[in-house]
Amino acid sequence: DSGVTQTPKHLITATGQRVTLRCSPRSGDLSVYWYQQSLDQGLQFLIQYYNGEERAKGNILERFSAQQFPDLHSELNLSSLELGDSALYFCASSVLSGGNTGELFFGEGSRLTVL
Amino acid sequence: GENVEQHPSTLSVQEGDSAVIKCTYSDSASNYFPWYKQELGKRPQLIIDIRSNVGEKKDQRIAVTLNKTAKHFSLHITETQPEDSAVYFCAAPRGAGTALIFGKGTTLSVSS
Fold it and tell me: How far apart are CA B59 and CA A1, in angstroms?
């Protein structure tokens, strides 16, 4: 158990709909990262938050947005869903200390299926 | 931004053989190079990492080597076992931050 909690584990929805994925980081971790894993695309970095503020943005579509709340949990919002958005969405957390990169602890992922 | 290339995409070995996976990165400022293992249906987990001030690091049957001049690093697994079968990802940090950019992964199959 990594200590990172993601909900829901599975989600099936239709094209055009909107969903929200939730992540609770490990206790004490201030950074949260979102990654998308599709079959042939590996782990694509979407966005990072640190202590409530956006820190880095990757290949995140304009239809997607995220935020990190004062209690440090994060939500990834996916709207106007398309078939190609079907993927496993991972949240990860880390201790960000002095700018040194370190281990990312991944949650179990949320599998999104868009029909 | 950082670009991480990983080869090969698939690797099949016999139990007891060695396996080597190679990655190249583009950002010369990168200073941290981890390897993650993802078993089928599971989350990625760190198995070994190396920082730019060393050239090699070992942990039992796994080792990572780093060549900063050539901007590449490699994962070496010796005496492979069936439980080593998984997808392995290399990664490097993006710019001066802590977000990791991952390679596309190598599917390692170890047959007994």
Answer: 22
